[in-house]
């Protein structure tokens, strides 16, 4: 018999001598008193005789424990979130039954079993009891082996007030009335990890069931929002079919419920068969929402459904694997969305998201994609752009290198090989390697285990050789770092001919035919590589206006994005960047314009309110206004991306360009849309909201705030909420900060309002001072993990005085999160850029515009 003491235990990993096989969980929530009672019976398989069982429990009061029917002693170890059960007699190898009774609280921290609220039509507050278990909060709902590798069957029963709706992972299989209460039993789940358990109870409405080739699909929401459910059901049905086909594996559970919740810390959660979402990511009216708002909904539904296989059916062994789980779902989300709406050109717009990863990955303080994780909280920092956007981009690069069909074969092989089990990252590489015959692990490992990414310099050596050299790209080019290289799949197009090389040393040479002289050379052809490209003068000269129009949208996007990065790194003067951007006057694709506008906003921040601002505004108008005029008025049947471009340019010309005409039109559009949401194109209505706010007075402020309070769709509500951070008036911006903490804004949104306020073009420093002075209050109120997202915007505070202020504050208030170091480094980079270039840029602007 193995005698164990709790002192000898690993603080982060439960002993594996006992493993749960099946949970019978019965919970009785009281929405009125925000509490619950529960009982769980767990079939436990014990390998060798043991004298105690160790499992997880947190914030629960355990009232009774038995093992095989006999009372057992127990102790709660709150520090380690564990329950230790010691029966009188040793537990023999074999199967035992552990039964535990407990009480708990429905908390307000949006984790574990928690309280979400909404106002009904009569203005009364209604409570929903719901769950968010990932990563380690299932232990707050019931005692369990709360690690992903302890997969088990969950049989869930909810005992609720008679008039309430209850959903969980499985289909409802039995309903009875006991003492005036409704007791609902749900079908057993497949074996799965505890972080995927879901329970939702409340006064909720449920749509009719959509039959998706035999899979029942429904949407669950607060009453009165049924008219906003069609779009999500359509995406859900499409995605379910698409994934079954892509993976070549049937949907692994018995139904899908998509649940819209008024309070939710993350965006959505892939609980098996019971997927939970923020309301704005599920409930939408396509006739009054923008392409971005619709795409967000489609993306997130596809993302969570992709997880039903990749994540739920096959699961990471431990939290170090969370990056692959999320990166893969991100990749599949784009692929499915691209199939759903090809006209949205989703792989092109993914380039914009990839730039978000480049932004962090160009810092010395970036991290490797995967890293060792001891404590589950070590993995908290994995929920960032390097996991989702870099990870997703690396998979896209691999897919484009192997070819989509070979990639898909490998994925299907991986899922079949490891179904219902747990894996490490390398298992995926090995599976794709097995089916493709390519050295996938050798290619991918350096991308996963080295920080950063390369810049590939392309140069002509005479007329017959194209030379490619790779270096790590950093914004701080003076920094001393290790010389790293990556195995880079590079697609090179010369004229119309594309070749692919694997650049796996510091440089390589590609022979050009003599008749290639003068042809356009595109390195990173197709645009999917996770690297930047620097062309020498000779190659750049071949990328003139005629050549540009022959490039794909993503290739042109990359040119602009790389130029902006070169400016941040100090290699391209702001005035030269502006001139470069002005070469894109004929551009008509939204994604490229988005890169241009991002660069213009960055240039605007170098000037602040100082001299040069008026000249800069003229240049912005000169660049963007002709395209806006050329697009004309919205037309019935025009592409969604054309309408989206018009909205983007209204914002750019109206706010960055300070154009009085566009500002006046924006007020008209805003008034018309306020009177009738269907009277104005949604892209114009949304853009106008921002312009009206950025140029609005106190009366406008009150009007927008009231629209936020009375909004009838989640999209209208959020547009107005975030617009409150756009006002160009110190008092109004401070009013927004106070409003964010007033209780009128849900804590799921408040951190993001404050982030937007800190990012305000002119008064961000005031918002920062507010946040600094309200730190303790915000920290106590906001969901865990959201403070760091709020802080992200301090990177825009680009004076050394503010760099020092921010650094001093965080020296006193450490966050224990490596993302903070990244934010502070980026702030220093921005301050350096402004200090070095702001004045000369202003002088050059004032000296005259070449256009
Ligand atoms: Zn995910």
Question: Could you characterize what this model shows?
Answer:
By secondary structure, this protein is α+β, with helices and mostly antiparallel strands. 41% of the residues lie in helices and 21% in strands. It has 26 helices and 29 strands. Helix 1 crosses helix 3 and helix 13 runs parallel beside helix 15. The radius of gyration is 28 Å and the shape is globular. Zinc ion binds at residues 270, 303, 307, 326, 329.
Q: Strand share of the residues? A: 15-25%
| Terminal Cα span | 85 Å
The helix-and-strand class reads: alpha+beta
Return the average pLDDT rounded to an integer: 96
Ranges with pLDDT <50 over ≥5 residues? none
Number of strands: 29
Helix content: 40-55%
* Main sheet specs: 10 strands, mixed
How many helix segments?
A: 26
Radius of gyration: 28 Å
Please supply descriptive tags for the structure shown above:
851 residues, alpha+beta, 10-stranded mixed β-sheet, 41% helix, 21% strand, binds zinc ion
Write the layout of secondary structure elements.
Blueprint: E1 18-30, E2 35-46, E3 53-56, E4 60-67, E5 70-77, E6 82-87, E7 94-105, E8 112-119, E9 125-132, E10 153-161, E11 165-168, E12 172-178, E13 181-186, E14 199-202, E15 205-206, E16 210-212, E17 215-221, H1 230-247, E18 256-261, E19 268-269, E20 274-278, H2 291-309, E21 315-316, H3 322-340, H4 346-361, H5 385-402, H6 404-417, E22 422-423, H7 425-436, H8 440-449, E23 454-461, E24 465-472, E25 488-494, E26 497-503, E27 507-511, E28 521-523, E29 532-535, H9 537-541, H10 545-548, H11 553-568, H12 574-581, H13 590-607, H14 613-631, H15 640-656, H16 660-675, H17 682-694, H18 698-710, H19 714-723, H20 730-740, H21 750-758, H22 764-773, H23 775-781, H24 787-791, H25 800-812, H26 818-846
Parallel strand pairs: 1-10, 17-18, 18-20, 21-22, 23-29
Antiparallel strand pairs: 1-2, 2-7, 3-6, 4-5, 4-7, 5-6, 8-9, 9-14, 10-13, 11-14, 12-13, 15-17, 16-17, 19-20, 23-24, 24-27, 25-26, 25-28
